[in-house]
Amino acid sequence: MDQNQEICVVMVPFITQGHLNQLIHLSRLISAYNLPVHFVCAPTHTRQAKLRVHGWDPLSASNIHFHEFPIPSFPNHAPDPNATIRFPNHLMPSFKSIMHLREPFLELITNLSTKTKRIVIVHDYLMSSIVQDFVSVPNAEVYMFQSCSAFTAFWFHWEETQTLKLDDETESLKAKVPTLEGCFSNEFLELLESEDESFKRISSGTLYDASKVFEEKYLELLKHDEVTSGTTKNWAIGPFNPVTVSDHTNSSIEWIKLFKWLDKQEPNSVVYVSFGTTVTFTDEEVKEIATGLEESGHKFIWVVREADKADIFDGDDERRVELPEGYEERVESSGVGVVVRGWAPQLEILKHPSTGGFLSHCGWNSCMEGITMGVPIATWPMHSDQPRNATLIKEVIGTGIYAREWGCRDEKVAAWMVSEAVRRLMASEEGRVARKNAAELGVAVRRSVEEGGVMRKELDEFVDHITRQ
Ligand SMILES: *[C@@H]1O[C@H](CO)[C@@H](O)[C@H](O)[C@H]1NC(C)=O
Ligand SMILES: *[C@@H]1O[C@H](CO)[C@@H](O)[C@H](O)[C@H]1NC(C)=O
Ligand SMILES: *[C@@H]1O[C@H](CO)[C@@H](O)[C@H](O)[C@H]1NC(C)=O
Ligand SMILES: CC(=O)N[C@H]1CO[C@H](CO)[C@@H](O)[C@@H]1O
Predict the structure, then answer these.
(1) What is the value of pTM for the model shown?
(2) How many angstroms separate the CA atoms of 175 and 187, rounded?
(3) Is 155 touching ligand 4 by the criterion CB < 6 Å?
């Protein structure tokens, strides 16, 4: 293992929860090969990543070094529940502020370069411009991390170039892939475009939080030069999330109560409802969802929380999401459901045998966690890559149903839509088939991370590649 001391990995995550979570998990996977990992981030987002990660303790990983570089302060806007699209545009000022990590990043790798044979930089796609100065450090090389599914990434690339001829199956799927309309704010698209320019010139390969178990076809398509314009090496090393989690890692009273309740429920009888960290609803929409869940006739765990602000620790003025009068007490005392406010132990809930469905916004972390734990998903995408993920879940791998189609995104949120989606997921033939597919795929994905599995092989290969003589 001596040679490994000569190689170090520098991880440069983007700062929204979904992205932070992926690269902190990847740090764990890579540091397990006895390679030192340097995690580069602003102080508040490092704190967030450590606090919210599930299934392991980042403080116990002695060869992950957290470098917290200050960034200029930014207005910490509250999310806007009334916005016309659901993209979290209130975070834009923080996205601009982290561009100042470029200088300390260069200083860090310059320092490291005198002590190491090779510096391997793994950066989020959205941080391409931060790492671009690596070219001035002769023993550094960069790998881009693509945070979305291979399926979604493929369609993003394909639309740009459209030169690759598709086979019949993929061609017929094309009509089912939603357009990007309504997915991003214009301001964010500008940022995407400028990052796009930087990465094309510099990457020696791409890493995906994707699995060959179900996305091999798209990973192969992504190796075509016509699609990615020159970045033809890729490694699919998902799922990044641990596939086994120990029970009840948090002894807070709230969580103990939650699992006590869950332990008492029938197998596959509870629907877990969560819309991630970037979605905010109006008071009226929250009321409709509340009524819909209650009327569905199925048991539920519902995570009720406001979308993250850019600095989650500056939360004094946070809007409290209001539920109808007496709702929480009523559903809890009748045993119909549990409302979780704040951070939920999502992996543990999904793993629990009583959980039989997941009503989700389809962020890629949530999709991967649902797939890993073998839980069928009712898809209600909100923005960004989520609509395409929904297509992947429903049309390609068959482990879900559409709760709300992307084409209907501008319709009013109504209670009937929620209750109907829950019923279809939990108690229809369509839901039953999705549940069966999800259970089978979950077994395959969990196996893939074991010795000899496809994920483990890919990860071994990547590590062999970066530690080559
Ligand atoms: C959203 O709209 C509602 C109703 O028009 C209004 O009461 C509320 O203040 C608005 N919220 C924000 C954050 O603008
Ligand atoms: C680089 O090394 C210098 C000298 O040891 C040190 O003062 C500085 O803090 C280091 N910078 C970074 C970003 O690690
Ligand atoms: C445990 O859960 C509580 C309630 O959600 C939370 O406030 C706390 O930070 C968690 N502690 C740890 C160590 O994760
Ligand atoms: C839930 C959802 O948004 N599904 C979308 C997935 O893709 C299909 C095919 O394009 C669309 O019809 C759906 O709107």
Answers:
(1) 0.87
(2) 27
(3) no
197-246, pLDDT tens digit by residue? 655 656 889 999 999 999 999 998 888 877 776 666 889 999 998 888 76
Separation of CA 308 and ligand 4 centre (Å): 26
Residues 439 and 462 in one domain: no
Residue 464 token pair: 């062999």
Atom 3 in ligand 1: which residue has the minimum CA distance? 82
Active site (annotated) includes residue 19: yes
Residue range(s) defining the domain that contains residue 88: 3-242+449-466
343 lines ligand 3 (CB under 6 A): yes
Reported in sequence order, the residue ranges of 280-328 that DSSP labels E, i.e. its strands, are 299-304
CA distances from 290 to 140, 262, 295, 367, 414 (A): 52, 19, 9, 23, 10
pLDDT digits (tens, 9 = 90+) for 351-371: 999 999 999 999 999 999 999
> Which ligand ends up closest to the CA of 51?
3
121 touches 136 (CB < 8 A):
no
Half-sphere exposure of 251 (CA within 13 A, CB side): 0
CA 53 / ligand 3 centre spacing (Å): 11
Judged by its nearest atom, the ligand closest to the C-alpha of residue 386 is 4
155 Cα–ligand 4 center, Å: 14
Angle at 252 between CA 247 and CA 257, to 5 degrees: 75
Phi, psi of 122 (to 5 degrees): -115, 115
For residue 282, the ligand 1 atom closest to its alpha carbon is 1
The DSSP-derived string for 105-130 is HHHHHHHHHTT-SEEEEEEEGGGHHH
Question: Same structural domain for residues 225 and 360?
Answer: no
Q: How confident is the model at residue 247 (pLDDT cuts 50, 70, 90)?
A: low
* Closest residue CA from atom 8 of ligand 1: 82
Q: Are 210 and 147 in contact (CB under 8 A)?
A: no
Same domain, 299 and 435: yes
Q: Ligand 3 centre and the CA of 255: distance in Å? A: 8
Within this chain, do residues 217 and 281 fall inside the same structural domain, yes or no? Answer: no
Catalytic residue among 123, 124, 209, 352: 124
First to last CA, the chain: 13
Look up residue 368 and give its two tokens: 């991967």
